[in-house]
Amino acid sequence: MSRGVLRSVRLEVADPLTAIEACFEKGWTDGLPVIPPTEERIWAMLDAMGKQPEDILGEIPERARAITAEKLAINAVMAGCLPEYAPVLLAIVEALCDPAFSAHGPTASTSGMGILTIVNGPIAAQVGMNAGENLFGPGWRANATIGRALRLLLRNVCGSIPGVMDRSCFGHPGKFTYCIAEDEVHSPWIPLHVERGIPPEESAVTLFAGESPHQIANPLASDPEAILSTIADVMVAGGRLSLSGQQFVVIVAGEHRRILSQAGWTKKDGRAWLHEHAVRSEEELARAGRLPPPETPLQAARQYRAVADPEDILVIAAGGDAGGYSVVIPGWAGRLHSEAVTKPVPPCPTCRVDA
């Protein structure tokens, strides 16, 4: 493939440490040191993408920002990504720029959402992603740097700079990096990407604008409904951004997963139960100050469902094998404003194994 021309600003520096400090001074980092994006590293990433520098991968129309392959490659290098991660990054940008995801809102909101990346399919194992213990914790380069690449891209290309375009009140640690894989090897259930229309032998990325993980502890439960009731409690918490019509990611770790699956419960069964039981009455929400006081007993008894449709609950098998834990991640501002988007991962022209 003939090569185009890199058009980004060049900095001449004496050594790598000076380059790292220059990135801090220019405001190009997330507060942590970055890998200096040399031309050699940028071209290695572009070659893995199979793209020319000027290729436009997507746009954020509300901000009049276009994401080129060159800008993605630069930020991926700075984040510490290997070229083998390039196909995942391309799928992330495609999902980010999908109008259904509506990237502008959750990345500018005072509510401080992070952008969760969920990877499914063979590529997760090929690039060494973690889907088990310490799921959201440190220690796995692919998880950490792929998620970080998205954050740097949002900052340096899309303008999501704290205090400028990003007006988050608190934010959360997932705004540094927020990237996981589903544990398909140990899961008794249909993988997320297959449920969302991708063939099982292919790889895919799902993007979800969400809060930080809400860990649920229920180590004494021995039946599915007891576990699901604690999950439903978190889904209907009075302090949620939206009272109804949201999407949720529900992550079920090993112990809870075994209890559910051994009783014959599928992901579909769990979604249906949560849709039916994750409700709050108007009277309860009024007491919490989220609604005006109801004027009649009929109004007081009226219920608000956390989700309008069971399919708005994305169930994932992941996390450690020991301990009675699950996780709920509420989405941003209701599905009308932003919804989860799943995109297939393209093949890598230069990688050892295609996705």
Beta-strand content estimate: 15-25%
Q: For the residues shown, what is the average pLDDT?
A: 94
Radius of gyration: 21 Å
The biggest sheet, with number of strands, parallel, antiparallel or mixed sense and barrel status, is:
4 strands, mixed
Structural class: alpha+beta
**How many strands in all?**
12
In DSSP terms (H or I, runs of 4 or more residues), the helix count works out at 13
Tell me, briefly, the overall form.
globular
State the separation between the terminal residues, measured CA to CA: 20 Å
> Roughly what percent helix?
25-40%
Encode the helix/strand succession as letters. HHEEHHHEHHEHEEHEHHEHHEEEE
Polypeptide structure, described:
By secondary structure, this protein is of the alpha+beta class. It contains 13 helices and 12 strands. A 4-stranded mixed β-sheet has the order 4-3-5-12. The chain has a 4-stranded mixed β-sheet with strand order 6-11-7-10. Helix 9 (224-235) packs across helix 11 (267-277). The chain has a domain at 212-330. The two termini are 20 Å apart. It has helices at residues 16-26, 39-49, 69-79, 86-96, 104-108, 122-126, 141-156, 192-195, 224-235, 254-262, 267-277, 282-287, 297-301; strands at residues 56-60, 65-68, 114-120, 179-181, 204-210, 214-217, 248-252, 279-281, 303-305, 313-317, 325-330, 341-344.
